[in-house]
Amino acid sequence: MEPNGTPDENASYRYLSTRGEDTGFSFEEVVLNSVAPDGGLYIPEEIPRATAWESWRNLTFPELAFEIMSLYISPSEIPPADLRDIIARSYSTFRSPEITPLVRLREKHHLLELFHGPTFASKDIASQFLGNLLEYFLIRKNESKTSTAADRHHLTFVGATRGDAGSAAMYGLRGKRDISVVVMFPEGQIAPVQEAQITTVPDENISSLAVDGTFEDCQNILRSLRADRQANEDFDLVSSRNWAQILAQIVLYFYSYFALTKQSASFKLGDKIRFVVPTGKFGSILAGYFALHMGLPIEKLVIATNENDILDRFWRTGRYEKQRPGRVGPSGAVLGSGLRKTLSPAMDVLTSHNFERLLWFLACEFASSAGMDHYWNQRQASQEVCKWFRELDEKGSFGPVYRDVIRCARREFESERITDEQTLDTIRAFYRHSGYVLDPHSAVGAAATVRSIYRTRGVIHHISFSTAHPAKFSDTIVRALQGEEGFSVEDKVLAAEFADLEKREKKVTPMENDWQKVREYIRARRGHGGIA
Ligand SMILES: *Cc1c(COP(=O)(O)O)cnc(C)c1O
Asked: Does the pLDDT at position 145 exceed 60?
């Protein structure tokens, strides 16, 4: 998508909302607000071309992150030295010197390990960076204010989690001044390692609530708080919609591409590659779309979903449709809303909110065939997105979208749906083949990769994302590998770091399933200054 008007070299520093005609948001506004005032998501007005990308081959992870992020952040907003410092601090918390090591699983199949951060899951890549960015902007806003001033800028994040997103947000924001975090989780219903991570963060500004209810109850509480918030702007909601989280993940595509040129004799700079990404809210894979349009030679981005397959169905039919409540598949229990509980819970979604960002770009590309100017195309795209999402709200679905829109989507993406049975089989198959233990999310990606390699007749290299450490889902690993030769959870799965987790002091507040009680709790925490 190229603008028809005069190219403005800084358009990628400015942001617009997918639902509005407003443009010209600064990076700082985008990061501090997460969601645009009209309910849309922020995207850069233009995707920058990385003309010198090949010269980045030998950069370290932080150096590469700096080059990529500099194309999206004006140096007048964050001076280069400050940006370097934010990046360095964000990735110094990782246990691997390579941050995200690439390992070879089989011929043409490489696995990008994204679980070497503080919470052992891919969300750390984005959350560590976002936490430092938020802190940076708040320090700057509060510079001239005394520590007790009533007009200090303060962010209170409230979220509901089943595990990964909540703990990554807590570890990204722990100890940050002027930020507080309250995370709800369904008591007794998340994996023990996840619960231990969420309930043992010692920092004053972080709290966890064990809600007497299901994950859906937690989400309903959040919904009530959000509705209430319109009348009462006193806190924000943890958001996986924040643009900075997409930005941070663009780095992964370039970094692993370069790593492969060094690790594989048959892969050269300039060769085409396929990425396969276990997908829920469409954040990680959307970052791949940006990498592709910046100029990285990506042949296809392969979406791997579990049985919550709204995206897979969109790619097949052009319809975006929440599952009807009450439908039960052969292998899965169905929750009230139609959400299916699977072995890869971080991907159990009814809708994928970052998909809205891709839809905007597809609509914009479609609009550009009318031959009008770039601003007209942008406005058309926003109007189209508004129309689609109004339909989604009203009817639970939209589409089929125009044939050209789905054609554009299929040109750059493919999609695979993996069942729980196939997930277990994949964990077993890779263990038998190479002794490698995949967590269930990574196994969804690996299963999709096997299909893609087969379809492309083994001529193209694939990098699939490994998004969590297997120890976080040890029950599923045991179910898949119990009785396999040489397998024991202690040796093959549990990392030393986890043993220590169980011993740490717990800090958790039991909470009734009542949104007004949660609101009281949040207000009291702010009131008595426990959050500073
Ligand atoms: C969040 C998450 C995913 C999916 O990423 P999205 O950006 O939501 O598509 C996959 N695996 C794990 C372990 C995750 O935590």
From this structure: yes
